[in-house]
Each structure stands twice: as structure tokens, then as C-alpha cells.
Write a structure and sequence with these properties.
This protein is mainly alpha-helical. The protein has a domain at 73-151. It has 2 helices and no strands. The protein has helices spanning 2-12, 70-183. Residues 107-141 form a coiled coil.
């Protein structure tokens, strides 16, 4: 087992003497070479949407070259973490602005729809009042015409009962008396 492990480890590492120090591990920071730093751009661009774009994540100006020590790496990492935090804060504020804008749009839309519904309700109430007034006027007119009809029928009935019937009775009595006189029949009144 030990021989196998040593063979593998010796194959993986180059041959060097025990007095030699192990080689230093070098980080590959070529991805940071193309990132513009704040000091690298001498000309400022006129950006109209500067508030809409998030701040770019850039390494510290002093660490634009590849770090050689662990302290440089820590410093560069902390500066990158700070820029990421700034970027996240900016994104958070942008999201909050979008949410507030959509909330205000929804509130305006709700207000407009509420006003439209209120206007529709008011118009429906007006139409209902108009129809109710028309029904009431028709009912009142029908009731008045009914009362007039009843009054006229009662008046005609009273006329018939008071004048027409006694006149008819008198004319019938006269006709009967004329017939009696004509045929000489004595009246049988007790």
C-alpha cells in the first residue's frame, strides 16, 4: 500500500530534492484584466441613463495587477465584495422603484375603475328614479281616472235612482190610468 501511494505521489510531483522549497501557487487573474477601473478611464462618458445602470464591479485600483501575496488577495476580495454589495444595493433600490411604480400604476388603474363603477352606479340610480317616477305618475293617473269613473258612475246611478226611476214610475202610472179610463176599469186602491 505504501509503495503504491509513493509511486503515485512521485509520479504526480516533479523530482526535486528535499531541501528545495515547494513551488508557489500562482492565481490566474486574467479575467480581471479587461474590467475597467475607475482610474483607468480618463474620459467620462455622458451617460443619460446613469441612474438606471448598476455600478460596475471593478477591483481596487491598486490591485489591477495580479496579486502576489495573500494580503493582496484578501484586499482585492474585500474590494470586490464591497462592489458586489453596492451592486446588490443598487439592484434592490431599482427593484423597489419598479415595485413602487407598478403599485402607483395599479392604484391609478383601481381609482379610475372605481370612478367608472361609481359613475355607472349613479347613472343606474338616476335611471331607476326616472322609471320609478314614471311608474308612480302612471299609477296616479290610473288611480285618478278610476276615481273619476267611479264618481261618474255613482253620479249617474244617483240620477237614475232619484230622477229617472220615479219619472218612469209616474209615466207608467199615467199610462195605466189612461188605459183604465179608456176601458172603464175602476182603480183598485185600498
Amino acid at each position: 500500500m505504501r509503495r503504491r501511494l509513493t509511486k503515485k505521489s512521485s509520479a504526480a510531483t516533479p523530482n526535486r530534492s528535499p531541501s528545495e522549497s515547494p513551488p508557489k501557487f500562482k492565481f490566474n487573474f486574467s479575467c480581471f484584466k479587461n474590467v475597467p477601473t475607475s482610474s483607468a478611464s480618463p474620459k467620462k462618458k455622458n451617460n443619460t441613463n446613469s441612474s438606471a445602470e448598476p455600478p460596475k464591479i471593478s477591483p481596487a485600483p491598486a490591485l489591477s495587477k495580479a496579486p502576489s501575496t495573500l494580503a493582496d488577495l484578501k484586499e482585492m476580495t474585500s474590494s470586490n465584495v464591497d462592489s458586489i454589495k453596492r451592486h446588490l444595493d443598487f439592484s434592490h433600490s431599482a427593484i423597489l422603484k419598479d415595485v413602487e411604480a407598478s403599485h402607483s400604476r395599479l392604484h391609478k388603474r383601481y381609482k379610475i375603475q372605481n370612478q367608472t363603477c361609481q359613475q355607472t352606479m349613479n347613472e343606474a340610480e338616476k335611471e331607476f328614479k326616472k322609471m320609478n317616477d314614471r311608474i308612480k305618475e302612471t299609477h296616479d293617473a290610473m288611480q285618478a281616472s278610476y276615481m273619476e269613473l267611479i264618481a261618474e258612475s255613482q253620479a249617474s246611478t244617483n240620477r237614475v235612482c232619484k230622477t229617472t226611476i220615479p219619472e218612469l214610475l209616474q209615466s207608467v202610472d199615467r199610462a195605466i190610468d189612461a188605459l183604465r179610463n179608456r176601458y172603464g176599469i175602476a182603480s183598485t186602491t185600498s
